[in-house]
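Quick one, tokens below. Sequence please?
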């Protein structure tokens, strides 16, 4: 088994073996945060007809209209209706925002620049031909590919599906992820804390991150530092695509997770990443199931989730693209240079006209609070030395984005 490998090598080892999950059809209201399994082509234009963006009057403008211009009002078109008649020169139609432009009209003047006088309208500021018309298909043409296979369906993307009248879509099934917190010191919330124990927070943190990533989460009750108990727990989630454990990952006598994985029949792909925090992570595979062992330290578990598990989830879920990395200017310093590559948690702040990275004051791998309000992971290469204010560092977002 490989050990102490670079993140990129670890990702390659894992991603090369992952196949996307199968697909299913769902109603679009069940499509949020799912991944499209087909290209979506619009059958209709949007808007489906030329429409008015204003409340006002539609008429036939010329380049030589007098000021004011007086026209006869021959009809009214509230939104949701249409006028079954062509309008002529000298005529106007009272029209409301979102209503179809009547045949013949070539402009809309806004209500505020007009005055109604009986069945006439006086237009103080006549507009040029073509003014204030939203053309048919301005946003979407019939036959346009709206969204590609592999697209992560954000709320506006689901809105777009609705806008073109789609009620069902083909998506990848949600990856099923079993979540196991290992540690004899752990207790679940809802009971008084016993001596030497701590509350299990990792299951709650990771559960939410998995839900946001569009996964179905199977929570496995806390498991003691015992191989037999761990094996029994693993057998309960045989239909999970991925199993994530936290704790028991390092070198202590009670760090039994790797042994449990091996005894369960996993081929171990690697143990230990050459980075901090979260060094003792490992990944195993048994058939189509993948097993991620993350550090029990709460912030380390989150960071390695971002670096290692999230890209794997993307591939499982059928998503396109990969996490973006980009340079960001540092708004604060970090003096503890080290031999190992390190990912620092930072808040994205606006400073001197730029978005900068302000480091969380606590960077310990056990400090969960350091993740709250942190938006970025700053990649500090091995042997980089101190990180200085104003220095440009490579960063990635801590969250899920469509790409
Ligand atoms: N002799 C060595 N000791 C350690 C090494 C090493 O290389 N040599 N590595 C250290 C590093 S780095 C890390 S990271 C941790 C990883 O330890 P484990 O993954 O085995 O995690 P645990 O020991 O089980 O837990 C660490 C810490 O986190 C707390 N924890 C565990 N699970 C949860 C949970 N579900 N919710 C909240 N908190 C949790 C646990 O109580 C510990 O305090 O090992 C170092 N040691
Ligand atoms: O690899 Mo550990 O998370 O630094 O303490």
């Amino acid at each position: 088994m490989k050990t102490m490998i670079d993140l990129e090598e670890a990702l390659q080892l894992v991603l090369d073996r992952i196949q996307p999950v199968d697909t299913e059809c769902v109603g679009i209201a069940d499509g949020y945060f799912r991944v499209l399994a087909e290209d979506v082509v619009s059958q209709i234009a949007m808007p489906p007809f030329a429409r008015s963006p204003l409340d006002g009057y539609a008429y036939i403008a010329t380049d030589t209209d007098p000021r004011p211009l007086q026209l006869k009002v021959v009809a009214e078109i509230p939104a949701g209706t249409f006028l079954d008649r062509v309008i002529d020169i000298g005529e106007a139609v009272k029209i409301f925002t979102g209503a179809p432009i009547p045949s013949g009209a070539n402009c809309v003047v806004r209500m505020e620049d007009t005055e109604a006088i009986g069945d006439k309208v006086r237009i103080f500021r006549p507009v040029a031909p073509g003014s204030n018309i939203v053309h048919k298909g301005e946003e979407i043409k019939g036959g346009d590919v709206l969204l590609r296979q592999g697209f992560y369906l954000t709320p506006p993307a689901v809105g777009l599906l609705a806008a073109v009248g789609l009620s069902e879509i083909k998506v990848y099934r949600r990856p099923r992820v079993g979540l196991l917190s290992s540690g004899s010191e752990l207790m679940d919330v809802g009971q008084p804390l016993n001596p030497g124990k701590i509350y299990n927070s990792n299951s709650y943190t990771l559960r939410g991150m998995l839900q946001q990533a569009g996964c179905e989460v199977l929570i496995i009750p806390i498991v003691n530092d015992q191989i037999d108990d761990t094996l029994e727990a693993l057998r309960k989630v045989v239909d999970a695509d991925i199993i994530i454990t936290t704790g028991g990952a390092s070198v202590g006598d009670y760090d039994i997770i790797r042994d449990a994985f091996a005894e369960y029949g996993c081929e171990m792909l690697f143990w230990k990443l050459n980075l901090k925090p979260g060094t003792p992570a490992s990944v195993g595979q048994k058939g189509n199931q993948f097993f991620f062992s993350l550090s029990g330290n709460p912030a380390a578990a989150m960071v390695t989730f971002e670096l290692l598990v999230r890209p794997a989830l993307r591939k499982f879920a059928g998503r396109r693209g990969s996490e973006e990395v980009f340079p960001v200017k540092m708004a604060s310093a970090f003096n503890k240079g080290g031999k190992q590559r390190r990912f620092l948690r930072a808040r994205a702040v606006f400073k001197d006209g730029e978005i900068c990275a302000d480091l969380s004051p606590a960077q310990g791998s056990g400090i969960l609070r350091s993740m709250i309000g942190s938006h970025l992971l700053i990649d500090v290469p091995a042997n980089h030395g101190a990180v200085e204010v104003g220095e440009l560092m490579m960063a990635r977002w801590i969250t899920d984005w469509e790409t």
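Residues 181, 183, 185-186, 198, 200-202, 246-251, 255, 277, 279-280, 295-298, 300, 365-366 surround LQZAQKY5 (ligand 1) (CB under 6 Å). The helical segments are 7-15, 155-163, 202-212, 227-235, 257-264, 298-317.
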